[in-house]
Design goal:
The chain contains 9 helices and 10 strands. By secondary structure, it is α/β, with parallel strands linked by helices.
Length: about 260
């Protein structure tokens, strides 16, 4: 067991556009005086996490990322290693990130990615930010792997979609936001839809396996009604994360755990 050197750790799952719900989750916590001392995120959680760690508020980030169209985030490419490019997200990070390295961030951050050469989860916490956040967000089939030091990396959700591992032994309290509930889908059409669905199904096991490690874990079931590649509902997703978290924070057992 490591020394619990941080008071509160935030853990943010992957989930594509559903990650806007993370921002509502954080907004509700902030209103109750709960701020992260360290953050661990995968994919969309890495994107939200790096901007929070850089000093932006949840509503700042909502405004920054709420562009309205998936084409503002990603572009079709020749399907050699991936169907899409994350060029829009890279552009947003280049334009807005004040920190250039993990060491420059205001809050310590872990970013989970999958080393596909060695078949394992990797938790980045040092060096260049943008390439490692991009690696964490590179959904297989949809996006090309990111090569760092001759190793190919894909989305952290392949191996760890709720990355509590880096912080579970060093935080007194851990709160988490999971945005990947999966419900019934009647029909899937097109390669991108099938790839998206397959990836999401692989990630659902995380909540049941790890729920006991959290003092508060928010996983709004209504998120199953939103696609992971459709950012058009950003305001709705933010509100869903916010309202679900506010409701959870009215529970006296949770309030005692969080010293509220």
């Amino acid at each position: 067991m490591g020394e619990k050197i941080y008071d509160t750790g935030f853990v943010l799952s992957g989930g594509g556009a559903r990650g806007f719900a993370h921002l509502g989750f954080i907004e509700a916590l902030n209103e109750n005086g709960i701020y992260p001392d360290i953050i661990s995120g995968t994919s969309a959680g890495a994107l939200a996490g790096v901007l929070i760690a850089d000093g932006y508020s949840p509503r700042d980030i909502l405004k920054m990322l709420n562009l309205g169209s998936r084409l503002d985030f990603m572009r079709p490419t020749l399907p050699r290693e991936g169907l899409l490019q994350i060029s829009g997200i890279i552009k947003i990070l280049n334009a807005n990130l004040r920190a250039k390295s993990f060491e420059d961030l205001k809050i310590p951050l872990y970013v989970a990615a999958t080393d596909i050469n060695n078949g394992k989860a990797v938790y980045f916490s040092e060096g260049d930010l943008i390439e490692k956040v991009t690696a964490s967000m590179s959904i297989p089939v949809l996006f090309q792997p990111v090569v760092i030091s001759n190793i190919q990396y894909l989305d952290g959700g392949i191996t760890d979609n709720l990355p509590v591992t880096p912080v579970e032994n060093i935080c007194k309290k851990i709160v988490g936001s999971f945005v990947n509930p999966v419900g019934y889908v009647e029909k899937l059409t097109g390669l991108i839809s099938i790839a998206e669905r397959t990836f999401m199904l692989n990630m659902t096991k995380e909540v049941t396996e790890k729920a006991g490690k959290f003092d508060l874990l928010v996983a709004p079931p209504e998120l199953r009604n939103y696609g992971i590649l459709d950012p058009e509902k950003a305001e709705e997703l933010f509100a869903l994360g916010y309202n679900t978290t506010k409701a959870k924070l009215r529970d006296e057992t949770i309030r005692r755990k969080l010293d509220l």
